[in-house]
Sequence to fold (301 residues):
Amino acid sequence: MKPTLFVLAAGMGSRYGGLKQLDPLGPNGETIMDYSVFDALRAGFGKVVFVIRKDFEDDFREKILSKYENHIPVSVVFQGLDALPEGYTCPADRTKPWGTNHAVLMGKSVINEPFAVINADDFYGRDAFEVIAKELSRDHDRKGDYCMVGFRVGNTVTENGSVSRGVCSTVDGLLSSVVERTAITCEPDGTIVYADDNGEKVQLDPVTPVSMNLWGFTPDYFDFSEREFKKFLDEKLNTPKSEYYIPSAVDTLIKSGEATVKVLDTDSKWFGVTYAADRDGVVAKLAELHRQGAYPEKLFA
Fold:
């Protein structure tokens, strides 16, 4: 059974200053999502599901989905504030989305096979998709048999500011914890550092695995997530800025012993448009990949 690619494309890029998902960055107007879909297709994925907001559906279908016709089956689901389990009502003053793992829950009705979850505005690279496609394509004979691609932190920084990353700890190749580290920067000498709780700089080995939200799940994850989301709502429903994140849900399942997460290594270099100043660099990197032959002149000719 071929795995499905599940693309989280419902968020706005507040730091970037616009809707990153629809920004043409490639030499022929390609979006970053186009590269993810292309890489996933050649890695062996069989379907793509996008989760978006209803308010930009028309633009999304016209500018994005039309490209993939006759290449790979595509479905669209919607993340809305009122998409809550039975018995829960969205507070009237709530404006912030419910978070990445709430977005994942929107795929329950259309995904029945192992699936990878990615951010729409991150470039992950060919090797990352090949690594996770191979893992998702093997037999899964138990619930809670998950994986993630652990990018090397040195391959995920930007020269235009600090970043936040989920720094991973592993035991025997399995994820034991993900700790969110803020203000990760690359020093002029190439050293990677982050600021600890006291504001002191702590050095990170450049090959330390970090989460870039490239997760691999089997469909039982939806039931686990729905259960934990109800617990989240019982506690945080009336907290306006509370969000239900994928790492939080995964961490709960690891600690309860209901899931294991294999950390997959990749030498792919992540890049994205965290800041508006990143845009020119991303355009140049994509153009160079085309020149090198990593991608054809047009992705979906």
Q: What stands out?
A: The domain at 4-143+211-254+274-292 is CATH 3.90.550.10 (Spore Coat Polysaccharide Biosynthesis Protein SpsA; Chain A). The chain is about 25% helix and 25% strand. Helices lie at 32-43, 57-63, 100-105, 126-137, 220-236, 246-256, 279-292. The longest helix spans residues 220-236.
